[in-house]
Design the sequence.
């Protein structure tokens, strides 16, 4: 388990580096221009339907189901693989058809506040991206199958590969003044990744297209296993993507520049979650999917406590230095002062909820690993509903900051729901109170420090962050939460 998390961590480090590099290059080349807005709208149109129908259902469902079937019969597992491939191709083809036919309506729905020429460009980009839909879904499914054998090359390689090809496409688009290369970068990335996962799963013996020695009953069993465990999860991605859709609509109403600014801010805010909560969660699914042990409960308590102690101070530091960090990362080329201010407002709101966001993400995957998908879906619905309600009602008052604050509210709601479902409040309540009290003191002290430039502000506040962490460690619950850093980091659990 630890080995799996370390593998995923290094993969995520490379992916996050290239992801931030991609956003930095994109910001320098295109800023928050209409072209940048058109690309974000097209990518949202491509991304939202896929994740609404599939989302993380593949990783949260395929891994435990395939492991259970493998233990029963190799032929049953092979039949499940074939059924999975067929479903992925069929769903991907349907989504591609929907995007191609309804591209104009989709663009109008996502960004009602954009002008006609920007919408036309977004629609053209969406046509090219739509062709990648089957490859996107099938590649992710095969990477999940690969993980059941303890091999994580697909999961680790995917974001790095997609980011690298997107960077190359952005440079070519800028050099040739041909924006459509941005869309072809999405297509090319998913095509290359699919070829890699097909090769890897075939090498591991996980995928064979010979059906002559498989009974019809095994294929039917594979279909039932896929849909029986997927049904409770179907609302999970739909609700999440509906919330993102509303977020995009609200962003376009605030202003076209808010659309790309949201993605720039999210690229920074998601870094901690990507590097910690995501590998912990995936390792939990791959290593403990379907298992229920008392030892696992202790593991989840330690992992979630560790995420809180690390993510809460990191989020607070990020929020207090939002403008300075955005300036240092993005302020070059076409990314001017207005873009810095807009992106910083969104980042401030997102960073405030980083601690609950990271811990809540992990705890949801703990529920998924136990196949408690109904509870996980209900909690996700509550989180998405809170974000939608806040965004729709508050954007006239908070402007661009609404997007970030709504995301934090969603993370907080999910954290509270997951803690309640897993009955961890008695364990973590003291830790949460300590973090809030020390965070308030840290915020007041940070605001009292004068700074002439962004780098000076960050350097002055770094020692305060060290004092913040040191003060937290005077509390026994915080010291206990950090214990896994010096021992083996555990991942999954379940109640008896």
Sequence:
């Amino acid at each position: 388990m630890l080995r799996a998390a370390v593998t995923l961590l290094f993969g995520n480090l490379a992916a996050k580096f290239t992801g931030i590099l991609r956003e930095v290059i994109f910001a320098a080349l295109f800023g928050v221009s209409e072209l940048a807005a058109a690309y974000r709208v097209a990518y949202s149109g491509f991304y939202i339907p896929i994740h609404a129908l599939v989302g993380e259902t593949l990783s949260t469902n395929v891994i435990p189901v395939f492991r259970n079937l493998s233990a029963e019969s190799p032929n049953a597992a092979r039949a499940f693989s074939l059924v999975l491939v067929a479903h992925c191709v069929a769903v991907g083809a349907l989504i591609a058809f929907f995007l191609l036919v309804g591209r104009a309506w989709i663009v109008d729905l996502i960004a009602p506040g954009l002008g006609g020429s920007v919408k036309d460009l977004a629609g053209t980009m969406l046509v090219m991206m739509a062709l990648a839909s089957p490859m996107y879904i099938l590649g992710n499914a095969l990477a999940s199958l690969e993980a059941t054998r303890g091999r994580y090359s697909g999961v680790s390689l995917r974001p790095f590969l997609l980011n690298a090809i997107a960077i190359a496409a952005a440079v070519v688009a800028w050099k040739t003044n041909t924006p459509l290369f941005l869309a072809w970068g999405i297509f090319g990335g998913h095509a290359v990744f699919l070829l890699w996962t097909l090769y890897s799963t075939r090498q591991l013996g996980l995928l064979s297209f010979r059906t002559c020695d498989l009974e019809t009953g095994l294929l039917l069993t594979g279909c039932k296993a896929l849909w029986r465990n997927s049904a409770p999860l179907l609302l999970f991605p739909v609700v999440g993507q509906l919330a993102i859709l509303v977020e995009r609509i609200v962003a376009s109403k605030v202003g076209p520049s808010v659309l790309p600014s949201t993605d720039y801010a999210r690229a920074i805010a998601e870094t901690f979650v990507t590097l910690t909560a995501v590998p912990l969660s995936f390792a939990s699914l791959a290593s403990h999917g379907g298992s229920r042990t008392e030892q696992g409960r202790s593991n989840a308590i330690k992992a979630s406590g560790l995420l809180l102690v690390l993510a809460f101070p990191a989020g607070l530091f990020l929020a207090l230095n939002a403008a300075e960090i955005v300036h240092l990362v993005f302020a070059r080329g076409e990314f001017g002062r207005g873009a810095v201010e807009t992106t910083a407002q969104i980042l401030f709101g997102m960073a405030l909820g980083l601690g609950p966001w990271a811990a809540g993400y992990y705890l949801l995957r703990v529920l998924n690993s136990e196949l408690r998908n109904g509870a996980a879906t209900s909690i996700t619905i509550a989180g998405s509903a809170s974000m939608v309600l806040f965004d729709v009602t508050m954007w006239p008052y908070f402007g661009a900051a609404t997007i970030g604050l709504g995301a934090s509210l969603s993370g907080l709601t999910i954290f509270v729901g997951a803690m309640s479902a897993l009955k961890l409040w008695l364990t973590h309540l003291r830790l949460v109170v300590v973090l809030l009290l020390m965070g308030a003191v840290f915020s007041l002290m940070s605001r009292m420090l004068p700074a002439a430039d962004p780098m000076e502000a960050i350097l002055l506040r770094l020692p305060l962050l060290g004092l913040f962490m040191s003060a937290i460690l005077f509390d026994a619950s915080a010291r206990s939460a950090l214990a896994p850093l010096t021992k083996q980091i555990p991942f999954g659990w379940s109640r008896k």
